[in-house]
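<backbone_tokenisation>
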Amino acid sequence: MIRVREAIVVEGRYDKTTLSQLVDGVILETNGFGIFKDREKLALLRRIADRRGLVVLTDSDGAGFVIRNYLKGALPKDKVKHAYIPDLYGKERRKTHPGKEGKLGVEGMSPAVLEHALRQAGATILGEETGRAAPALTKADLYACGLSGGENSREKRKKLLAALGLPEHLSPNAMLPVLSALYSREDLLNTLQKLQ
């Protein structure tokens, strides 16, 4: 497992599931073409790109390039890296038929191919550079802060999300990678103290 500093943007949940078996880090989905109409998600991607950088990793088919090109135009160019997977033909295990172009997507790639793509894109692999990275936020941190699993945790989450200018409908599971991408544990605790 490798830790990547930048947040990685993939097309869908199966891509995210495959990548999460290799990468310990923030992985966000575009929900396919849903990103074209989701202004909140695009604003969130811009914010994360500005804070820690993004790596765009889409399928190598036409649809993947449409999404990639849209993100190229919508996100700050100096904060975004692009990882490309090779054109390999076949079908993913969960599918009964190959895709329209017959190419494997991110979900069909081996961990070695995905790691190579990330390294070729220049993703920052934590532990391989000088210095130590701060530990990422965990579900236990959210619980300890009263943001999940406790009395009034929903209201506390809404208040925090509003104060941070984040989408109000983030569940604890969806909120965790977003907060990890934007804030350190210390920053989050300081913000929570100010809200109380």
